[in-house]
Amino acid sequence: MPYHEFKCSKCIPERKKHAVIKGAGEDLTSALPLGYLNTIPGSISERGCAYCGAKHVIGTPMKDVIHMSHGPVGCTYDTWQTKRYISDNDNFQLKYTYATDMKEKHIIFGAEKLLKQNIIEAFKAFPNIKRMTLYQTCASALIGDDINAIAQEVMDEMPDVDIFVCNSPGFGGPSQSGGHHKINIAWINQKVGNVEPKITSDYVINYVGEYNIQGDQEVMVDYFKRMGIQVLSTFTGNGSYDDLRAMHRAHLNVLECARSAEYICNELKVRYGTPRLDIDGFGFEPLSASLRKVGLFFGIEDRAQAIIDEETARWKPELDWYKERLKGKKVCLWPGGSKLWHWAHVIHEEMGVEVVSVYTKFGHQGDMEKGISRCEEGALAIDDPNELEGIEAMEMLKPDIIFTGKRPGEVAKKLRIPYLNAHAYHNGPWKGYEGWVRFARDIYNAIYSPIHQLAFVDISKDEISSDTKFLTQKMISDVNLSEEVTSSSELREYTGKYDSLAKLRGKTYPDLTSPKQSAAV
Amino acid sequence: MEDMMNDRIGQLVDYIMKKCLWQFHSRSWDREKQNEGILTKTMQLLCGEPVETGTPTDKCYWVDAVCLADAFKTRYLWLATMDKAEIKLLMQGLKDRMDYLTITGSLNEELNDPHY
Ligand code: SF4
Questions:
Q1: Which of A209, A431, B57, B62 could form a disulfide bond with A257, CB atoms 3.0-4.6 angstroms apart?
Q2: Three-state SS for A376?
């Protein structure tokens, strides 16, 4: 097994099995790190807790809901607003956060009364919102507050409200991934099947594992609507609580982030017979294949093809402009869970960058299987890295850019390596054809920003030459490009708008009946 | 001859591992069904045989199989030189290899967890 031992982790020998370098001729039966295990004592992990995974990642993107934590205010504060899962109802779920604010006295005397008072107060403060999700935290779990009973009491007293309870305290899993699992199962057990939806199309899907980061969901839903598909619910980005109670009526579950939401798809398949189709919304080729597959399933692949042709013609010359300038740049692809496999091969193929390392904070071995298969030989794959390992890897691999979260991202900046926020994005959405160009533009701007060139100068000791002029990104990036590329009339920089979502909101779609129905008329 | 067959199987495996996701469902029994369902239908499409699409699950396998068969045909021109019997042999070899890489030889310790 090609394990990689970090010098900084020699004192934690168990860490050795959590990193591998995929060598020549090696495959998954010889190169796979351990994963989804409790963090080893002594290793300062970058993971989140199971409460955070349930609330912050999956619960809170639901848009028409009061999301309340039962616990100390700190748990809530740290899971508030740090992701950009926007919504088309003025970001209600991002603007407010709610906690019962448990204190020491509640640990001793119980906090059920406090909880009930908080729930009622919140509903009164927002009389138009009739739905709530309630999250247990370590503190309320340890004292044994019966959150379900309190929720029921309130629902009995206020018949127009509905409350979902998520029992996923922070200690309830090795990482946030444990919380993803718990909330998936809790939602299907408690809520799916409770609402009967209005079916308006012959083609009905749930779009699952999609969190509308900077508008990703809205971009994808636009494609589906242009194909005449009804998106019954999105689990959970920009999703509506009641739509998600009707998930059982979809004909197909289209699954994007399998890491966070495959559980509910698997259960929908077992309980309701709805099949699961895994897709990739990132990158021209994977996205095109995905739209085609959804089209094939419903017998409307010609509609998918029309979108693929139109969007590719519009955006490919812009993607290729960036590809010419990003070729050979070394990337550490260090996201939380699923983006290591969503992006590993496609940023290499479509943007020309070299993925020298992949890591996952909370992914399972299945995510590493996908990621390692998709990256090239020689890539360093790390499970649940600690900060020192991250630094050692950056010093060893000398990447041109890191895609990661904001905590390791700040560390990278100190080492003067530009980083892009893989979880919340920079100038997203990054899904869809236009979104993929926006991602390429963000990478380009990060690598070639003059600020990074300047950051390498240490003003406390380096001589600052007076003939060093300010260089724009293009002056830096184009220096070694051929004339053919720099003066190409085909390739061009991104020409979309600053806000690429405005054109989607309020858009109307043609009523597309099924080919069967039109033939019968 | 055997070398050539192995080389060709290797090319098909590489394509699936890089471009597809269906082979990586989370449990062994799931992976067995996925590999069997999708690769059998791909073989049938490549051999011009009828394909069952009656149930939603069958249809889902068929969708992935159509995309896979198309990709194989456009990328691996040697496929057009093979007769039905050879394609069946090739696809059986591919299925065996995929089962090994994703199930029997897999190092993924979660595959045999009885729950999702
Ligand atoms: S680990 Fe427990 S106390 Fe800490 S944030 Fe998570 S739920 Fe709160």
A1: A209
A2: coil
Q: For residue A49, is pLDDT > 90?
A: yes
Closest CA to A100 of A87, A110, A108, A85: A110
Distance between CA A66 and CA A368 in Å, rounded? 35
Question: Which residues of chain A are within 8 Å of residue B15 when distances are taken between CB atoms?
Answer: none
Average pLDDT over residues A332-358: 95
Which run of H or E residues covers position A367?
A: helix A365-374
Chain B interface with A: residues with Cβ < 8 Å: 17-19, 21-22, 24-26, 30, 56-57, 59-60, 62-64, 66-67, 100-102, 105-110, 116
Distance A135 CA to ligand 1 centre (A): 11
What ipTM did this prediction achieve? 0.96
pLDDT tens, B14-26? 999 999 999 999 9
CB A205 within 8 A of CB A280: no
pLDDT digits (tens, 9 = 90+) for A392-442: 999 999 999 999 998 899 999 999 999 999 999 999 999 999 999 999 999
For a mutational test of ligand 1's pocket, the pick from A39, A51, A82, A107, i.e. the residue with the most ligand atoms closer than 8 A to its C-beta, is A51
Name every protein residue with a CB atom under 6 angstroms from any ligand 1 atom: A 49, 51-52, 71, 75, 78, 137-138, 169-170
- The alpha carbon of A365 and the centre of ligand 1 are apart by a number of angstroms equal to 25
The whole-angstrom separation of Cα B116 and Cα B113 is 7
Q: Is residue A259 classed as helix, strand or coil in its secondary structure? A: helix
Rounded CA separation A429/A499 (Å) = 9
Reported as half-sphere exposure (CB side, CA atoms, 13 A), residue A472 has a value of 3
- In tens, the pLDDT along A67-81 reads 999 999 999 887 776
Burial of A30 (0-12, 13-18, 19+ CB in 10 A): middle
Token readout for B91 is 């696809």
Average pLDDT, chain A: 94
pLDDT score, position B92: 98
Residues of chain B in contact with residue A370, where contact means CB-CB under 8 angstroms, are 21, 24
Nearest to A32 among B25, B108, B116 (CB): B108
CB B103 within 8 A of CB B35: yes
Whether residue A429 is preceded by a cis peptide bond, meaning omega within 30 degrees of 0, is yes
Protein residue whose Cα sits closest to atom 5 of ligand 1? A75
Residues 6+ apart with CB under 8 A from A67: A55, A59, A60, A93, A97, A98, A132, A133, A135
Residue, of A221 and A336, whose pLDDT is higher: A221
CA distance A35 to A383: 6
Strand arrangement of the beta sheet that strand A419-421 belongs to: A19-21, A380-383, A354-360, A330-333, A401-404, A419-421
Q: How many CB atoms lie within 10 A of CB A108?
A: 9
